[in-house]
Design a protein that fits this description.
alpha/beta; Quinone Oxidoreductase, Chain A, domain 1; Rossmann fold; 2 domains; 7-stranded mixed sheet; 6-stranded parallel sheet; 11 helices; 20 strands
């Protein structure tokens, strides 16, 4: 089958023919109809830390159709429309039983045993690494059923692909992580795809005001369309002062979708008494947040790291799909460009354009 393969870190994606195994055990073979371009995949392709051996097939935002099932796969049927998610969960540990599948103790249970089993992906008899158990930058993906969620057939594939990562993270961070209540004030730092989803969720939660912060006016105008009541260009304005003024002394919730030391510090300083700082994004290279313990205590603030929306992925994806089909969650507006699998490098370059929200592969 055709797949976009990373041969060497930093040298882009190369369209190649590779082999894919037959589904075994609880695996599901999916014909990929759409795959979103997420910056995490680009980071792994450019600065591969060695955790994912090369050659490598990435792509963790996928939507498609089930075409074959392993002998123990029971969650889906052939012809079902599904969305993939990078959360790998065993279903048997304490966290999974508690509904915290995003904190699963044994995510490796969703993978094949490399010492015993034939690899899912190979080329000339040698293994090809399947990124995050998905490998959606390919014509087909062989995935453990726990990493898939059914979506209604009437949902288009391109917006559906975004549900499994960016949308799930943004919406879930507001609903599950912060549990934003009606009338509570919200600031969202970073108006990319995840940030726009967080803005939409804050609007649905009844938050007010909702302040979007970014350095690009094009992204801020889009944030207004998604539900931001106010926008702040932090390249021209002191974002902390502006947000504190707009919210009457500091917001109840500040979401950092960028993940640098500077933006995390902004989130901390723009929250009011008893406010929550929700760290969602992480810039390449990592960052450190300096905290004054007396100030943190006296101002009664809480700092929270959120992964994949802090909720059950299947419930979250199903909820987002329902919101989309009811016209309450704007996902079509996130899909700025549709490209072919062979054009991944150009697609990632396009994400630097502030007028581009998300790029999705729809031709394989």
């Amino acid at each position: 089958m055709k797949a976009a393969v990373v041969e060497k870190a930093g040298e882009g994606f190369v369209l190649q023919d590779i082999d894919i195994a037959e589904p075994a055990d609880r695996e599901v073979l999916v014909e990929v109809r759409a795959a979103g371009l997420c910056h995490t995949d680009l980071t792994l392709a450019t600065h591969n830390p060695g955790r994912l051996p090369l050659p490598l097939v990435l792509g963790h935002e996928l939507a498609g159709v089930v075409v074959a099932l392993g002998p123990r796969a029971a969650a889906f049927g052939v012809g079902d429309h599904v969305v993939g998610c990078l959360v790998q969960w065993c279903g048997a540990c304490a966290a999974c039983h508690d509904g915290r599948t995003y904190q699963c103790a044994h995510p490796e249970a969703t993978l094949r045993d490399p010492a015993r089993d034939r690899p899912r992906l190979s080329r000339d008899g040698e293994p090809v690494t399947q990124g995050m158990g998905l490998g959606g930058f390919a014509r087909h993906a062989l995935v453990h059923e726990n990493q898939l969620t059914s979506v209604p057939r009437e949902m288009p594939f391109a917006p559906a692909a975004l549900l499994g990562c960016g949308v799930l993270t943004g919406v879930g961070s507001v609903f599950n992580g912060a549990r934003v209540a009606p009338g509570e004030s919200v600031a969202v730092i970073g108006a990319g795809g995840v940030g726009l989803s967080a803005v939409s969720a804050a609007r649905l939660a009844g938050a007010s005001p909702i302040v979007a912060i970014d350095v690009q006016d094009g992204k801020l105008e889009r944030a207004r369309a998604f539900g931001a009541t106010h926008v702040v260009n932090s390249a021209r304005t002191d974002a902390v002062s502006a947000v504190r003024e707009l919210s009457g002394g500091g917001v109840r919730h500040a979401f950092d979708l960028v993940g640098t030391a500077a933006t995390a510090d902004q989130a901390l300083r723009m929250t009011g008494l008893g406010g929550g700082i929700h760290l969602v994004g992480l810039a390449p290279g990592g960052a450190e947040l300096r905290l004054s313990l007396p100030r943190l205590l006296l101002e009664q603030k809480r700092v929270q790291g959120l992964i994949m929306g802090a909720g059950d992925p299947r419930r979250g994806i199903t909820r987002c799909a329902d919101l989309y089909l009811r016209g309450e969650l704007p996902l079509d507006e996130l899909v700025s460009r549709r490209i072919a699998l062979a054009d991944l490098d150009a697609g990632y370059a396009a994400l630097a354009d502030p007028d581009v929200a998300r790029v999705v592969v729809t031709s394989f």
